[in-house]
Amino acid sequence: MRSRRRVSLLLLPVLSAVIGLTACGGGDGNSTFTPASAAPIVAVAGCENGWTNPTDLSPTRKPARCAANAPAPDPLPTKTKIVVTAATPKAEFIAPIRWAIDKGEFAKENLDVELRQVPSADGLNLLAQGQTDVMVGAPDGAFFNAVNQGFGIRWVMGNFSAPTTSKTGVWARDVDGRPATFADLKGKTFASVLGSGSPVMYPIVQQAEKSGLTFSDLKFKTLPAADLVTALQNGGIDAAWVLDPLWIQLVGKPGLTYLGGQPPGEPLGGVLFGPKVLGDKRAAGVAFTRAVVRTINTAFAGDYKSDPTFVDELAKVVELPASQLTATPSLTTDWEIRSGTSTRLQDAMIKSGALSYQAPLEESKVVDRSFYEAAVGHKA
Q1: Fewest 10 Å CB contacts: which of 47, 111, 239, 310?
Q2: How does DSSP assign 320-353, residue by residue?
Q3: What's 219's domain CATH number?
Q4: Distance (Å, whole) CA 335 – CA 51
């Protein structure tokens, strides 16, 4: 039996003051990073349905899918090292990458992929400086500010859209004995474990504006995950954005109402590539993407938690209890990025005060779909 491939989850020490984005020569706000030219795209067997129109924002859109085990490996002529960082390697949304490492999908592409645990801010610094190749996380305020400064980083893959049964999102305390609405939150304390530069600002600002409020109408604060649910239940805060799996503790509790979460069918996080993979190592970037897409199509295409045997194996790979995995519904894995998402994210972060500029950057400056288009053989 093949021995399990181990992931090096190293907490890499980084001196942010030394390699801080604003202090380095990788971008000056006036420079323009130009990615390497993409190779001609060829059709890929089994991926005839491996692309959806990014302008399709329908909440019922089915994510792109190829056949199982597609796209087939196309190994690089020379073994290539790819260093990936993630702040939370045990998070479920990273499971396809960890599964691909463990099951040898990257090795089939002649890639040597190392996953390191690095805090988000430091991971972005390393990525922008070209000291690492890939970051798994989200296009947050720091990412957009770095792109605005001219650093060569791009959002290249989505990760998931929330399943319809998920209750990740805004939870609020009842008002005067009735379920709260978002309009009731004017002047109220709203908490999140994530800061004002997080992608969750998009659905929060969106819900606020639909209710006639602005972000400034909320008294926003950050709280540790361990304190968030307790504060909401005992009245220390009025509302909160509650993540997986914490929301499970709130379901059915009197005095609390779920007000909505991530826009359906729209991933807000995923994979970021740095200047090396966007440049000289572009072929390795396509190979990396191909392995992730193949892993999703083979192991994470549907309700992967419905198979107890698979869940047990997944628990070993991501180092989480199987009971924790099955407590929440399967994620709707989705490698694509919707049209306009980056603009909507930036608009919300501008309103929350997280960005250093006042007008959203063009999508072409922050998003690069060409890697997954090449992986599935879609010609734009």
Answers
A1: 310
A2: --HHHHHTSPPPEE-----TTHHHHHHHHHHHTT
A3: 3.40.190.10
A4: 10
